[in-house]
Each structure stands twice: as structure tokens, then as C-alpha cells.
Amino acid sequence: MTTDAFEPHPLVRLLDKPAAEFTTDDLVRAAEELELRQANLRYVGGDGRLKTIAFAISSRDHLEQVLTIGERVDGSSIFEGTDAATSDVYIVPRHRTAFVNPFGERPSLDVICSFYGEDGQPLPYAGEQVVRRAAEALTRETGMVLEAFGELEYYLVGPVEEIFAVEEERGYQESAPFSKGQRVREQVLGHLASMGVQLKYAHGEVGNIREEERQLVQHEIEFLPVPVEQAADVLVLAKWVVREVAHAHGLEVTFAPSVSSDGAGSGLHVHSRLVRDGANAIVGPSGLDDTGRRLIAGYLSSARALTAFGNTVPTSYLRFTEGDESPEGISWGETDRTGLVRDPLAWNGDVLPAMVAHANPGRSGPVPEPAVHAQTVELRLADGSADVHLLLAGMAVAARQGLGDPDSLDVAERLSTADHDDFEQLPSSCAESADALEERRDLFEADGVFPAELVDAVLERLRSDADADLVTKMGKDQAARDELVRRHWHVG
């Protein structure tokens, strides 16, 4: 392999091989040459956050052991409902995820791990194993790979700045000095790129909120499509990096779905596509094809149940009722932002050469095209509270159902915004979301993708908030609403 001059991943540059081919020996060599004397094993806990075990490396043999066999951890402290008497589980490093950690007292080699039980088998209720099973089941049945990426929205919160003061609801792709936090955003991009995360872009988002003593400025990071198992890890890693960089700048960050009654909430829109033999299977010469419509039908048919994974706190449902661009019904449309699923512009037809020629008169040579066509479908359901591994696993299950259902094309036609605007609504509370999941639990539990005990735990967590009348109550009591927002400020 000849490393691209623009390659940002230091381990890929040093080892001159793609991350997917990393081995224990490679990582030991990298640690030695980069003088890294600490290794951190990372894993995603049951609460969706990135956890850490730090090892001060004492010898080559020690590092080889850590990077090969991993460690055991207390599952009862990680996953809800685990029996403390039999809770030990293993975490084993996935070498392709290795990166050099830019934070902490000294540079370290970090690797994300997978969970295994005492029998050495994948731990059934660990999120990364659930999404892996869901993806494998879809590919096994259809021959296609589901790829995805998220649009991660968040607010940076700090003291009011009077110079080039923020203007409420005018932050979309604003530039500094009117946009606050651009330095944070650019540092986040640099760190994520060096960790091997495939990035599309980052920018300021619509939400600017100015209060008496603080300002809240919204930002977004958008990634590139990767298999769903990797897409879930990317979102968890990105949240961690955003928090680290914001904290270093003395700013607070929140991914909460609702931060104020006066401004936009933060969603987590997820784009996806199906790939077969290196080609995008959801697009044809004239745009979205029947496979793409079946994919959309699968998402829409399971949408109410998917909120159990994508909208996990009571303030998620405030966002549905208060947001200007939050979904208005279980429907889909081309480019518009009123439905739950959107078919975005994707350089279809012959538009690209003409645009390039008009913008750059006299240009010669072919217009470069991506290896896989850029067409995706955008599911606009989730928010920053999402359990991203379970959400993406649920999307894979829903996609598989839509692809296999002979009535899917009729469903897609019926739920299109092209002809009418009277559609079924999403749940209005965690309690209603739990009911929707319980009604469809057989779909998610099929073939052992979602263990029954995991579904039970999700249902119990959603119902513990007792928020069935949430929207009505919050509309009449601003103080109670503010307290609810505060309680769910740091999600995911």
C-alpha cells in the first residue's frame, strides 16, 4: 500500500496499511515507534457512553497481552438487569479501531472492544453485538450491506458574547465571528479524522439561543457512509471527542433533544443506503428505485417502535411537538423536510457535468465520481438521546422486513407526501413508545437479533418515566418543563 499524502490517521501512515488490516504486532510496533507508554481499552456501556480502562505498559509482552486478549469487567455495573453473582464478562480489542488518543496526561494507544460471555461467545445483550447480528441477518437474507451515517447535532453553551452577538435561529452554516465555537468544531474534526473516522463536513446549525447569562450555539457534524456496525461506534466516539474539546475550552456541550422552549432541539438524522457488490442498490438512472422504496417502507412500518431506541427520554417528545423541522407524521417525501423519511438530492441524472462546467468555464477532463453512488434515504426520527447501537440494529431489522414484504411498494406509495398530508403520528411519550415496541417485539427478537431480556430492559426504562401526559403538563408549567430539560441535559 502507498499511503495517500492526505491520510490523517497516524497509525495508517506509520504502518502503511489500512486500519482493517491492523494486527497486534502492528499496534505494538506503532506504540514503540510513537513512544506510547499507555494503552486504553474502550467499550460502549449500557448507557451509550464510552468507557475506559487504562494500562500503564510495563513491557512488550504486557502490551501484546492487553491488545490480544483484552480484560474482564463487571457486567453488572455496565448493563441493567445483570446478576451481580455471575456478571463477569470479557472485552476483546478490535484492532481496526485503534487510534492515538490526543487527550489525557500523555499520548496513549486506544482500542475499542467487543463483549463476550464466560463461554467465549458474543454477549447477546451488548449493543455492538446486537447491531452486528442485525447487519449479518440482513446481508445473509438479501446479499446487501446496510451502510449508514449520522448527522450529529449539539449545542455549545457558554457566557454571552457581546461582540458579534449571536442572532437567534440564524446559525445555519454561519461563519466566524458570527458563529461561536468554530475553533472547537475544527479541533473536533481534526481529532476525529486522525482516529480514522470518515467525515463529510461540519458546520453551524440553525439553533442560536441567547439567554440572560448564557448563549447556546448549535453545531452539526456529518459523517460518511460505513457499515452500520461501524456507524454506531463513530457516533459514540464523536460525542466523546466533542465533549473533551468543549471542556478544554471551558464550554459545556449538550446533545439533548430539547434545550429550551425558545429554540430548536437537537436531532440525530440517520442516512442509509444498501450496497451490493460495491454498487448502491437503492438508486437507478432516474433516482430512487424500488429497492430504495422498500427500504423506506420498512423504516416507516416500524417507525413507532424505533422511537424506543432513538428517542429515549421524555424531552424527546417535546422536540416532536415543538420543533419547526421535526417530523410531522409517519410519511416520506423527496427533498422536503416535513416527513419522517426524506429522499435527499444526490446528483442524479446528468446535472453534475453541467454544473461543474458552468462554475468553471474552460475546465477539461472527466468529473470525478464517488466509488459508490451518493444516494441515501434520511430517517429523521432520532435525537441525541438515542442508543445508537440499538437504533441502527433496529433500522437493519426494519430494512430487512421492508425488503422482504411483498406489500412494501404499496406501503411506500400510501405513505408518500406527494398526494396527501394525513398520516399516523409518532408516539407522544416514552410510555407510548414502549407500547409501540411491545407490539412489534417479535419482529426485533426474530432470529435472536434482540434478546428478549434486552427488550424487557428497554421497556422498563421507558416506562419508568411515567410521562404519558407529558406534553399537556409541560405546556401549562414552564418551571416543570425547565426542570425536565435540566434532568435530561446530558444524554447518551
Question: Rough shape?
Answer: globular
Give the structural class: alpha+beta
Overall average pLDDT: 93
Distinct helical segment count: 16
The CA-CA distance between the termini, in Å, is 38 Å
Compute the gyration radius: what is it? Answer: 23 Å
Contiguous runs where pLDDT drops below 50 for at least 5 residues: none
**DSSP strand content:** 15-25%
The number of strands is 18
Largest sheet: 10 strands, mixed
Helix content range of the residues, please?
25-40%
Q: What is the secondary structure topology, with strand pairs?
A:
Layout: H1 10-15, H2 24-33, E1 38-44, E2 50-56, H3 60-69, E3 71-74, E4 88-93, E5 99-101, E6 108-116, H4 127-142, E7 145-158, H5 182-194, E8 199-210, E9 215-223, E10 226-227, H6 228-248, E11 252-254, E12 268-276, E13 279-280, E14 283-284, E15 287-288, H7 290-301, H8 303-310, H9 315-322, E16 332-334, E17 341-343, H10 351-359, E18 377-379, H11 388-404, H12 408-414, H13 430-445, H14 452-463, H15 470-476, H16 478-487
Parallel strand pairs: 1-6, 16-17
Antiparallel strand pairs: 1-2, 3-4, 4-6, 5-6, 7-9, 7-10, 7-11, 7-12, 8-9, 12-13, 12-18, 14-15, 17-18
